[in-house]
């Protein structure tokens, strides 16, 4: 079994942040409205999404009451490097958002590279980062786990608050590719901690631990994620829809490391209608053992020949093979051949796959909105 650069890590202090987050912003439970399942044909995705995830003014009755209040009172803040907006830096714009925020605050980010380490605090919910799809802004920093005392603290952008949205934004960690055996390899582009986050047409660039999808119900659509080792990791419950995944390490590497620690954790990554490409030839694992109940599923995903024939790795710890949930369903491409898969990999039945093809897997009917119409 290959030895990878370094394991993705959680730090205990983040648990305190999660606890305070729930105290400061209570999310009122509401019943999920029916949504049509994700279509089996990729060509139908855009029309299906438009028909099911309607704009706020057509779905108000179904949404979380706190979200309804926020969406009725929208404020737009412009960030422009040339000084034509209210702020020149994203940091200044975020700091201007009041504590215990109750308004949907759209930060319209002009083109250019913003080298800043940005944090949205737990009491700053309802924030949207919005860029121009024709000239997407890049939010970048070069923080590493070693520099900032842990993987969960080194992100270029860290979001502790609930109801975050990002549209047409590049999140990057500009630290150089780590050397084999390096102890300073973890370098996160985005850390998501809050509940109910949606990201549309965003790009995530880095090498090790690019995307820390740590906690909460999340939704990624039409995105791009690159990296070399554990570059999508965390213990969130997330649907990645129509997202391109690119493995950058010619020696192989691992795409996912899911952090489900006990059976009662209602978490798991679901990749639906995604694509996997890269630079290695049959050396990249879909996922590996990190925590004993890690849960990752690929459905209707096109897998190139970068995928290792075994598919999944238990890091040589066969004692957890029965608790890991590493599964595939109706995937295509040379990397999707199941004949060489490890014994603990699951080939889902139609019934087993069904929950992952439903946006209510992440409770979407109560909170998920399409990108706002920003001019």
TrEMBL record:
Ranges of residues in domain Pectinesterase catalytic: 78-363
GO molecular function term, any single one: pectinesterase activity
Keyword hit for Hydrolase: yes
Keywords: Aspartyl esterase, Hydrolase
Family according to the record: Belongs to the pectinesterase family.
Keyword Nucleus: no
Native source organism of the sequence: Papaver somniferum
Name of the featured protein: pectinesterase
GO term, biological process aspect, one: pectin catabolic process
Pfam families the UniProt entry points to: Pectinesterase
Enzyme class of the recorded protein, top EC level: hydrolase
Membrane spanning residue stretches: none
EC number in record: 3.1.1.11
Pathway assignment: Glycan metabolism; pectin degradation; 2-dehydro-3-deoxy-D-gluconate from pectin: step 1/5
């Amino acid at each position: 079994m290959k030895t990878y650069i370094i394991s993705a890590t959680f730090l205990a202090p983040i648990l305190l942040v999660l606890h305070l987050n729930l105290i400061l912003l209570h999310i009122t439970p509401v019943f999920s409205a029916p949504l049509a399942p994700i279509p089996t044909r990729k060509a139908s995705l855009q029309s299906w999404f438009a028909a099911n995830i309607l704009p706020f003014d057509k779905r108000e009755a179904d949404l979380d009451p706190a979200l309804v209040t926020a969406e009725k009172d929208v404020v737009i803040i412009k960030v422009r490097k040339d000084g034509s907006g209210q702020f020149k830096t994203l940091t200044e714009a975020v700091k201007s958002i009041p504590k215990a925020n109750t308004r949907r605050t759209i930060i319209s980010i002009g083109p250019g590279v913003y080298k800043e380490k940005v944090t949205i605090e737990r009491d700053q919910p309802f924030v949207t980062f919005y860029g121009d799809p024709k000239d997407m802004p890049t939010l970048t920093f070069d923080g590493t786990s070693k520099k900032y005392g842990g993987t969960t603290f080194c992100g270029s952008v860290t979001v502790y608050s609930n109801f975050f949205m990002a549209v047409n934004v590049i999140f990057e960690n500009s630290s150089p590719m780590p050397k084999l055996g390096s102890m300073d390899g973890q370098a996160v582009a985005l850390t998501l901690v809050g509940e109910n986050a949606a990201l549309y047409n965003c790009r995530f660039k880095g090498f090790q631990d690019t995307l820390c999808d740590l906690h909460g119900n999340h939704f990624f659509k039409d995105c791009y994620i690159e990296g070399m080792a554990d570059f999508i990791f965390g213990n969130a419950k997330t649907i990645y829809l129509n997202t391109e995944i690119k493995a950058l390490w010619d020696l192989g590497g691992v795409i996912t490391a899911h952090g489900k620690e006990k059976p009662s954790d209602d978490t798991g990554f679901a990749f639906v209608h995604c694509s996997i490409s890269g630079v290695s030839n049959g050396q990249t694992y879909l996922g590996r053992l990190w925590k004993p109940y890690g849960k990752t599923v690929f459905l209707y995903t096109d897998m190139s020949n970068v995928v290792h024939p075994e598919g999944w790795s238990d890091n040589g710890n066969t004692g957890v093979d029965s608790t890991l949930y590493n599964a595939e369903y109706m995937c295509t491409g040379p990397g999707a051949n199941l004949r060489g898969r490890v014994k603990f990999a699951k080939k889902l039945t139609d019934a087993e796959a069904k929950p992952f093809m439903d946006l209510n897997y992440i409770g979407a009917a109560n909170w998920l909105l399409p990108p706002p119409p920003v001019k």
